[in-house]
Design a protein that fits this description.
- Helix content is about 50%, strand content about 20%.
- It has one domain (about 10-65).
- The relative contact order is 0.18.
- It is an alpha+beta fold and about 70 residues long.
- The protein is globular, with a radius of gyration of 12 Å.
- It contains 3 helices and 3 strands.
- Pfam families: HTH_17.
């Protein structure tokens, strides 16, 4: 299996996002609940958009810069 990249898809299941982000399943759902990681519902599935992942990474970078 090759490592996942953000260019492969536009929507990711939480299990796919775990491979892209160094976060546990619990933390990913916590970030979604807190509005820090954008997601959409498709039926019963919770999907995270590629743009949501990019925005989350940008948010983390901004927070790191502000803390420095």
């Amino acid at each position: 299996m090759t490592p996942a990249t953000l260019d492969d898809a536009q929507l990711y299941r939480v299990t796919d996002a775990i491979r892209l982000l160094p976060l546990s399943r619990t933390v990913i759902y916590e970030q979604i609940r807190n509005g820090r990681l954008r997601s959409v519902k498709q039926g019963r599935a919770r999907l995270i958009t590629a743009n949501g992942i990019r925005a989350y990474i940008a948010l983390l970078e901004r927070e790191a810069e502000e803390a420095a």
